[in-house]
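User: quick one, sequence for these C-alpha cells?
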C-alpha cells in the first residue's frame, strides 16, 4: 500500500477523532455553567476550539497546504518581500505608514477558498505558480501600527498560521510589541526569520555590532537551536523598484529563502509542521482544561463545610447571649411560672385548694392593668417570646441576618469560591422574616425545655414520679390506717373502749398531716429553679437553631458539590479524548530534522 493511501487513511481517522473532541468541547463551552470559571480561560478555549474545527476542515478536504504569515513592523518590507516572491507587484508598497492595512493572501488557483478561514480572505490574489500550490502566503497588517484595528487583525490571523515569517530590519528586529507576539506564539507555531533591507546592514561591522548576529543571539536565548534566519534585500528582487539590473549586496539570501519555500518545504515537511502545530494546540487546550480542573478540585468542600458550621454556631451563640441577658432580667417571671407549674404538676386536694386560691387572687384583679398582679401566670410560657424578640428589635435581627450571610460569603471566598457565585443564591434562601424564624425556634426550645425539666432523666425521673404519686394518695392511706387503729381499739382490744367525738382525729390528723407533708415534699423536689430551666432552653435553642440554619445553608454546599462533580466528569471526558488523539498522532509522527530549526527547544523535546 502506497504512502499516500496510508496518509489519507490516517488523515480521515484523525479528522473523525478530532471532530469528536471539538464537538464535545463545543458542547461543554456553550453549556450554561453554574461554576464560576475564569472567563479568560473560557475565551482562550473558545479560540482553540476555532482552531480545532479549522483543522478538522483541512483534514477532511484532503489538501496538504500550510499558511505562511509575514509578520513585522512598519517599514520592514513585508509587502516588498511578498512582491519579490510573487514576481509581480501584488501588495502595495510606499512611504505612507502604515502601508499594509488589510490582510492580503497569495493563494494558488487550485486551492478552494472555502477551506480557508474568513480572516485570511479580506483580499485574496490568485496565482498559478505550481511550485507554491500548497503554500498560502499572507501579508499581515503592521504589528506596531498606530491604528489598533491593524494589530487586532494581525492577532486574529496568527492562530491560523502554520509558519510565521518574522520580518525585521536593521532598526526593527527586537521591538517590544513584535517580541511579545513572537514569545506568545513561538510556543505553538513554526517560526523562521528574515532580516530584510540587508543592504543597509552591510558594513555595519565598522560602526557597531551586526543586527543579524545580535538577533541570532536573542533567538538562542529564547530557546532556538540554530534558528533559521535569512538576510534579504527584497527591493533588489522586485521589478516594481526598477532595481532588477542592480547587483544585490554581499550576503543576500533571497534566493535561499525562495529555495526553502519552494523546494525544501516539501509535502513531508508540511505534514510534520501541521502535525506539530496541531499537537501544540491540543496540548494548550489540555493545559487550559487541566487548569480549570485544578480550580475545581482545589476547593476543599469538607473544610468549607466545617467553616460554615463554625460561622453558624457563632451566629447562634451571639443570639443566645442576647437571650440569656433577657432571661436574667425576667428571672422573677420565670420563677413564678415554674412555681405555678410545680403546683399544677402535683395532684391531691391540697394542690387543688392552692390552685383555686391563686386563681381567686388573680380573678380579684381590677379590670385596669395592675403591675402588682402577676397576670402572666394565666398565660403560656411561650408568650415570653412575644416580649423577647421585640426587646431585641427588628433592626438587630435584620443586621444579624446580613452579617451571617456576609460571614458565609467571606468563608467561601477564603476557600476559593467567589462571593459573586454564591451571593445571589444565599440571599434568596435566607429567611426573609428572621423574627418569625427565631420565634419558631424559641417556642420549640421552650417546649423541649418544659418537657425535659418536668420529665427528667434517670433516677431523678423515678424519684419525681414517686413523689408526684404521694399527694392525694398517701394521705388517704394514712387516714385509713388511723381509722384502722380506731376500729381495732373499738372491737378487738382487750380493754373496753368508749368512743367519743375526738375519735375522728384518728382519721383526720394522719390524712391532713400526710397530705401537707407530701405536698410540700413534692413541691420542693419539683424543678422550679429558673437557672436550670434557662439552661435547658439555651441547649435546645442552640441545637435546634444550628440544625435549622444548616438545613437552609447546607443545601447550598450539596448543590455546589453536585455541580462540581458534573463539571469534573465532563472535563475529564474531554481530556481523555484529547489524550487519545495526542497518542494517535505521537505514535505515527516522525521527527524530521529539517523542521527542528523552526521551533524552540522546549517544543522539540516534547
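Assistant:
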Amino acid at each position: 500500500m502506497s504512502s499516500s493511501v496510508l496518509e489519507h487513511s490516517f488523515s480521515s481517522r484523525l479528522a473523525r477523532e478530532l471532530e469528536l473532541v471539538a464537538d464535545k468541547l463545543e458542547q461543554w463551552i456553550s453549556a450554561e455553567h453554574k461554576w464560576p470559571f475564569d472567563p479568560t480561560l473560557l475565551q482562550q478555549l473558545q479560540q482553540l476550539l476555532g482552531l480545532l474545527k479549522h483543522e478538522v476542515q483541512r483534514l477532511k478536504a484532503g489538501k496538504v497546504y500550510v499558511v505562511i504569515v509575514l509578520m513585522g513592523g512598519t517599514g520592514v518590507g513585508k509587502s516588498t518581500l511578498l512582491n519579490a516572491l510573487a514576481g509581480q507587484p501584488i501588495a502595495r508598497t510606499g512611504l505612507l505608514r502604515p502601508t499594509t492595512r488589510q490582510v492580503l493572501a497569495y493563494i494558488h488557483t487550485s486551492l478552494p477558498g472555502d477551506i480557508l478561514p474568513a480572516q485570511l480572505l479580506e483580499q485574496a490574489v490568485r496565482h498559478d505558480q505550481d511550485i507554491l500550490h500548497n503554500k498560502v502566503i499572507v501579508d499581515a497588517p503592521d504589528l506596531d501600527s498606530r491604528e489598533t484595528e491593524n494589530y487586532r487583525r494581525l492577532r486574529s490571523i496568527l492562530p491560523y498560521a502554520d509558519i510565521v515569517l518574522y520580518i525585521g530590519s536593521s532598526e526593527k528586529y527586537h521591538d517590544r510589541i513584535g517580541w511579545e507576539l513572537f514569545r506568545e506564539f513561538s510556543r505553538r507555531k513554526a517560526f523562521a526569520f528574515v532580516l530584510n533591507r540587508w543592504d543597509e546592514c552591510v558594513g555595519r561591522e565598522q560602526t557597531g555590532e551586526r543586527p543579524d548576529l545580535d538577533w541570532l543571539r536573542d533567538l538562542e536565548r529564547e530557546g532556538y537551536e540554530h534558528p533559521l534566519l535569512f538576510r534579504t534585500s527584497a527591493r533588489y528582487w522586485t521589478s516594481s523598484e526598477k532595481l532588477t539590473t542592480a547587483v544585490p549586496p554581499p550576503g543576500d539570501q533571497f534566493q535561499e529563502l525562495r529555495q526553502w519555500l519552494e523546494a525544501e518545504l516539501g509535502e513531508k515537511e508540511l505534514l510534520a509542521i501541521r502535525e506539530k502545530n496541531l499537537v501544540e494546540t491540543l496540548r494548550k487546550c489540555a493545559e487550559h482544561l487541566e487548569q480549570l480542573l485544578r480550580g475545581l478540585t482545589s476547593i476543599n468542600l469538607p473544610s468549607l463545610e466545617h467553616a460554615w458550621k463554625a460561622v453558624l454556631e457563632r451566629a447562634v451563640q451571639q443570639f443566645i447571649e442576647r437571650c440569656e441577658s433577657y432571661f436574667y432580667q425576667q428571672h422573677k417571671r420565670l420563677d413564678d411560672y415554674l412555681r405555678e407549674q410545680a403546683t399544677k404538676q402535683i395532684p391531691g386536694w391540697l394542690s387543688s385548694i392552692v390552685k383555686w386560691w391563686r386563681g381567686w387572687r388573680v380573678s380579684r384583679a381590677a379590670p385596669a392593668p395592675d403591675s402588682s398582679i402577676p397576670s402572666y401566670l394565666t398565660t403560656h410560657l411561650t408568650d415570653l417570646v412575644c416580649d423577647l424578640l421585640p426587646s431585641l428589635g427588628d433592626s438587630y435581627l435584620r443586621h444579624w441576618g446580613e452579617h451571617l450571610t456576609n460571614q458565609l460569603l467571606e468563608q467561601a471566598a477564603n476557600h476559593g469560591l467567589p462571593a459573586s457565585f454564591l451571593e445571589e443564591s444565599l440571599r434568596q434562601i435566607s429567611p426573609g422574616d428572621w423574627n418569625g424564624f427565631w420565634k419558631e425556634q424559641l417556642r420549640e426550645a421552650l417546649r423541649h425545655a418544659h418537657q425535659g425539666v418536668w420529665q427528667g432523666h434517670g433516677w431523678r425521673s423515678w424519684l419525681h414520679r414517686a413523689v408526684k404519686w404521694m399527694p392525694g394518695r398517701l394521705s388517704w392511706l394514712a387516714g385509713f390506717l388511723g381509722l384502722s387503729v380506731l376500729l381495732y381499739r373499738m372491737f378487738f382490744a382487750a380493754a373496753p373502749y368508749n368512743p367519743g367525738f375526738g375519735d375522728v382525729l384518728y382519721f383526720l390528723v394522719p390524712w391532713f398531716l400526710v397530705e401537707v407533708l407530701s405536698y410540700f415534699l413534692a413541691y420542693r423536689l419539683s424543678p422550679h429553679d429558673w437557672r436550670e430551666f434557662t439552661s435547658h432552653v439555651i441547649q435546645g435553642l442552640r441545637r435546634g437553631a444550628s440544625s435549622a440554619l444548616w438545613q437552609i445553608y447546607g443545601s447550598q454546599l450539596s448543590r455546589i458539590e453536585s455541580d462540581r462533580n458534573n463539571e469534573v466528569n465532563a472535563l475529564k471526558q474531554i481530556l481523555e479524548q484529547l489524550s487519545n488523539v495526542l497518542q494517535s498522532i505521537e505514535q505515527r509522527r516522525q521527527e524530521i530534522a529539517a523542521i527542528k530549526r523552526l521551533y524552540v527547544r522546549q517544543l522539540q523535546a516534547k
